[in-house]
Amino acid sequence: GESVGLHLPTLSVQEGDNSIINCAYSNSASDYFIWYKQESGKGPQFIIDIRSNMDKRQGQRVTVLLNKTVKHLSLQIAATQPGDSAVYFCAENRSSNYKLTFGKGTLLTVNP
Amino acid sequence: GAVVSQHPSRVICKSGTSVKIECRSLDFQATTMFWYRQFPKQSLMLMATSNEGSKATYEQGVEKDKFLINHASLTLSTLTVTSAHPEDSSFYICSARDGRVAQSQYFGPGTRLTVL
């Protein structure tokens, strides 16, 4: 079936470095994408979203890039901090259907 | 704003008993709520979609008689795990959609269920 997946299950970076987390999706009908951060034992926390009519969107220290040609999504975190350590999930849906499909998740570990 | 709560946050029960988990939208009306299950080190898997005043829609492979969902008001949905077994032990997370905000979905803090 169609799914959203991630290339890297774990990522370890040094504090202050930039982090890039990748996600591949296969549903060409998806038109809305979201990145979530999940800390241990907690629910997902919204980070940033992007619609399919855009290829880049920036937030505070985070940037999401969308490449529809190759169905690829990435999350860039600038100046990564220990508090950024968590599991990051991408999710996708179609505007006609509010159901979210989550990717496998990437565990980001920030070393001080 | 846009706060979703879940109760209880943690529950331990004996095999064969039923457990009810509540999901509340605290400052908005949720036309739709979603229930997810997450096993350790895995992603969130959608179990069912709950619409206020109507029957829930279950995803393929999710037993509706096992996981009873009630969405009696615009701010409350409940998930009852009936005759729970150890394999039902998981992290259950709800989310709620604010119909006034396009494609919004706000997540609750989750409920850790342990079935002995």
- N-to-C order of helices and strands of chain A: EEEEEEEEEEE
Percent helix of chain B = under 10%
Indicate the percent of residues in helices of chain A.
Answer: under 10%
Basic shape of chain B = globular
Low-confidence stretches of chain A: none
Strand content of chain A is: over 45%
Number of helices of chain A: 0
The overall pLDDT of chain A, averaged over residues, is 90
Rg of chain A from C-alpha positions?
13 Å
Shape of chain A: globular
Question: What is the number of helical segments of chain B per DSSP (H or I, 4+ residues)?
Answer: 0
Could you list the spans of chain B in which at least 5 consecutive residues all have pLDDT below 50? Answer: none
Overall number of strands of chain A: 11
H/E series of chain B, N to C?
EEEEEEEEEEE
Multimer state: heterodimer
Mean pLDDT of chain B: 93
Task: Give a nutshell description of this structure.
The complex is a heterodimer of chains A (112) and B (116). Chain A contains no helices and 11 strands.
Please tell me about this protein's structure:
- The complex is a heterodimer of chains A (112) and B (116).
- Helix content of chain A is 0%, strand content 57%.
- Chain A is an all-beta fold and 112 residues long.
- In chain A, the strands form two sheets. In chain A, strands 2, 4, 5, 9, 10 and 11 form a six-stranded mixed beta sheet that branches.
- The mean pLDDT of chain A is 90.
- By secondary structure, chain B is mostly beta strands.
- Helices cover 0% and strands 53% of the residues of chain B.
- The model of chain B has no long low-confidence stretch (mean pLDDT 93).
- At the A-B interface, β5 and β10 of A face β5, β9 and β10 of B.
